[in-house]
Amino acid sequence: MSVETERRIEQGRRLAAEGAELLAGSGGGAGAEATAAEALAWTARTFGAEWIVASNMQDAVLIDLATRARPGVDVLFLETGYHFAETLGTRDAVASVYPLRIVEATASRTVAEQDADEGPRLFASNPDRCCALRKVEPLRRTLAGYRAWVTGVRRVEAPTRANTPLVTFDERHGLVKVNPLAAWSDDDMAHYIEENGVLVNPLVSAGYPSIGCQPCTSRPAPGADPRSGRWAGSTKTECGLHG
């Protein structure tokens, strides 16, 4: 590791600690967290243009908030080659409505090339490997150009996300990670969407509360965990982007 990289990582750890401390007490009341808008304002103030917002295009809540904090912000979209048409349509609609720049992260091989090298339907035979190739590696490569990334991860989404912090240092990628919506409930999301006319992927109203790649996403049973439709029938619960 170069001296410059070490310096950058150390600075990132310091900024993450400062941000976590600052935002932990800025929401009003003892121990209250900052609002999503406050967390994004801190991100824009601290990192200027050197941060990126990750979106799976399920809805544009985080994008709506982020573009208020910094018009023209970069938005990362992982183009896996397996998305629903509705997801791609939502991406295009978002790009036309909000002041932002879409940054598409693609795998080093096309789906056809991957099929030839790894065998067809890798998403079924080895979903962890497929996610690593089509999501995790392109994310790592793209994030290398930024000092911070912002995600829409929320604590209520899954037990694996229950302890999601508002601000942390992402050791895997070597940069600050901000989760402005960490404390938001499903009702909070629905209220913000209604009040602000936020774009939503049409698959949500069709019964898909958690949307990923088409081959690995199904409608959950009524009343089931919203993420139970992701990799249904397997023990896999995360794609590896968030640890």
From TrEMBL:
Domain Phosphoadenosine phosphosulphate reductase: 54-218
Main location group: cytoplasm
Cofactor (UniProt): [4Fe-4S] cluster
Gene Ontology CC: cytoplasm
Keyword field: Cytoplasm, Iron, Iron-sulfur, Metal-binding, Oxidoreductase
GO molecular function: 4 iron, 4 sulfur cluster binding; adenylyl-sulfate reductase (thioredoxin) activity; metal ion binding; phosphoadenylyl-sulfate reductase (thioredoxin) activity
Residues given in the record as [4Fe-4S] cluster binding sites: C130, C131, C213, C216
Annotated pathway: Sulfur metabolism; hydrogen sulfide biosynthesis; sulfite from sulfate
Region spans: Disordered: 219-243
E.C. code: 1.8.4.10
Localisation per UniProt entry: Cytoplasm
Active site feature: C239
InterPro entries linked: APS_reductase (IPR011798), PAPS/APS_Rdtase (IPR004511), PAPS_reduct_dom (IPR002500), Rossmann-like_a/b/a_fold (IPR014729)
Catalytic activity: [thioredoxin]-disulfide + sulfite + AMP + 2 H(+) = adenosine 5'-phosphosulfate + [thioredoxin]-dithiol
GO BP: cysteine biosynthetic process; hydrogen sulfide biosynthetic process; sulfate assimilation, phosphoadenylyl sulfate reduction by phosphoadenylyl-sulfate reductase (thioredoxin)
Cofactor binding, per record: Binds 1 [4Fe-4S] cluster per subunit.
HAMAP family for this protein: CysH (MF_00063)
PANTHER family hit by this protein: PHOSPHOADENOSINE PHOSPHOSULFATE REDUCTASE
Described function: Catalyzes the formation of sulfite from adenosine 5'-phosphosulfate (APS) using thioredoxin as an electron donor.
UniProt record similarity statement: Belongs to the PAPS reductase family. CysH subfamily.
Name of the protein in its database record: Adenosine 5'-phosphosulfate reductase
Species annotation: Actinoalloteichus fjordicus
Organism classification: Bacteria, Bacillati, Actinomycetota, Actinomycetes, Pseudonocardiales
Record gene name: cysH
